[in-house]
Amino acid sequence: MIKREHIKQAIEAVSRRDPEIGYALDELLGMERIYLADHEISQEDLDPKLFIDGQEVIVKRISYFLDGLAPLEQRLVLKFGELLKREEIQEKGSNVDFFPAIEEIRLVRWCDVHIQANVSLKAAWIRAIAPRKTFYRHGNVYQRDDGTKRMVDRLKTALARTTPGIANSVYTAERTGANHVILNAYDDATFGPAPDWAKKDRDLVFLGRLVSQKGCDTLIAALGRLAAHGRHPGLTVIGDGPDRTYLERQARQSGVDGQVRFLGGLKGRVLADELARHRVMVVPSRYEEPFGIVALEGLASGCIPIVSERGGLIDAIGGHGFTFPNGDAAALADRLEEVLGDMGRARIRLTGAEDHLAGCSARAVAEHYITVFQRHLERSRIQWA
Predict the structure, then answer these.
(1) Which residues, at least 6 apart from 84, have a Cβ–Cβ distance to it below 8 Å?
(2) What is the β-pairing status of strands 322-324 and 114-117?
(3) Rounded distance, CA 214 to CA 14, Å?
(4) Are strands 34-36 and 49-52 parallel, antiparallel or unpaired?
(5) Cα torsion through 38, 59, 11, 51, rounded to 10
(6) Rounded to an integer, what distance in angstroms lies between the CA atom of residue 3 and that of residue 41?
(7) Using the 8-state DSSP alphabet, how is residue 309 labeled?
(8) Which strand (E) or helix (H) includes residue 261?
(9) Which residues pair with 209 in a beta bridge?
C-alpha cells in the first residue's frame, strides 16, 4: 500500500531530475493538495490510489511491484502537468472538445505500440491509459535555442525521462533519458551515390533556412577572415528565410559578395545535383541542433562536412568530417583553412562514410524501429506471463 513517505520519496526522486517540478509537488503535498485515500484498500480494490487536487491517481499494483517508486513518480509528474493545463484552460475560459479523444482511446487500445513524435502535454493522458504501449520519439531536447527551459519544457523533460523513448541522436538521448538511439533517415533514393571527386567544381555549400539559429552569418564572417589572408573560396547558399537581405548585406560589407551565390530554395533532384557539385558542406548552427539531416545529404553527395560541435550534428556525420565551436567565426575560418589547404588529407575523413549512410537509409531506420518495438513487446509479454 502507498504511504505518505512513499509519496515523499517519489517527489524527492523527481526533484533530483528537476528541482522546480519537485519543489512544486512538495508544496502541493504540504498544502494537502496531494493526499491518500482515507480508507484501507480492500481485496477488490487492488490498485493503490492517491489524489491530487481531488483528481484520482491510480498506480497499477503490478507496476508498483515490478518497478518500485518509478510508476508513482510518473503519475505525479503526469497529474501535475494536467493540473497546470486545467488551470490554463480555466484562465482562458476555453472550451475543450473531447470527442476526438474517444477515437484516440479506441486506437490506443487497439494498437500494439503507440509512438508519439515528441512529448505533448496535451496528449500526455494517452501515456496514463497505455503506459506499456507508449513510446516517445524525441526529435528535440525541450529547451529554448539559448539552452534555457520554461516550466513546460521541464514538464516535458520529466515525462520523457519516465517513459520509454527513442532519440534521434546520442545528444538528444542524453538530455531526454531516451533508452534507444535511432538516427534520422535521409532520402537515399534522391541523394547519392557520391560523384567522382574530379567532377566537383565548387567549393563550399550551406543548406538551410536563413534564420539566425542556422548560423549562415558565422560562415560569411569566416569567409571575410579568410579573404583577409588571401583565400577566396566560393560559397553557395541554398535556402531562404527572413535573414536573406541581412546576409546579402553582410556579404557586401565583408567584401565577399563576389564569392557568394544565393540560390534560394531547391528541392529533390535539382537540390541533389547542386550539392554533388560541391567539395565541402558547412553546417554552422549557432544553437544545439538535435540532429541535422542536411549533413547526411551532404555526406551522401560526397561533401566533406564541417559542423558545429555542440548538439547532434556530430552524430549525424558519424566521425566523417570536422567540427568547430558553435558561433565561433574565427575557429570556423581556421577549420576552413585546414580543409581547403589540404583537401587530399581532409578527404580521408570520408573513408567509411558509406557504411554510416547505409545505417541512415529509410529501410535501415524502419527495421531498427521494428526491432525496438518487437523487443519491447516481448519483454512486456514475459513480465505479464
Answers:
(1) 121, 151, 152, 155
(2) unpaired
(3) 34
(4) antiparallel
(5) -40
(6) 12
(7) S
(8) strand 260-264
(9) none
CA angle 343-192-184, nearest 5°?
Answer: 100
Question: Bridge-partner residues for 350, per DSSP?
Answer: none
pLDDT digits (tens, 9 = 90+) for 164-222: 999 999 999 999 999 999 999 999 999 999 999 999 999 999 999 999 999 999 999 99
3's grid cell: 504511504
In the block, cell 553546417 appears at 283
Which helix (DSSP H) or strand (DSSP E) does residue 38 occupy? none
3-state secondary structure of 74: helix
CB 114 within 8 A of CB 130: yes
State pLDDT tens for residues 247-288. 999 999 999 999 999 999 999 999 999 999 999 999 999 999
Cell of 47: 490498485
278 in Cβ contact with 263 (< 8 Å): no
- C-alpha cell recorded at residue 248: 546579402
C-alpha cell at 366: 524502419
Question: Distances in Å between the alpha carbon of 364 and those of 357, 367, 378?
Answer: 10, 5, 21
Specify which residues 82 forms β-bridges with: none
SS3 51: strand
Q: What would the grid cell of residue 341 be?
A: 589547404
Task: Name all domains of the chain by residue range, CATH numbers in brackets.
Answer: 1-96 (no CATH), 97-177 (no CATH), 197-358 (3.40.50.2000)
Nearest to 190, CA basis, from 310, 279, 276: 276
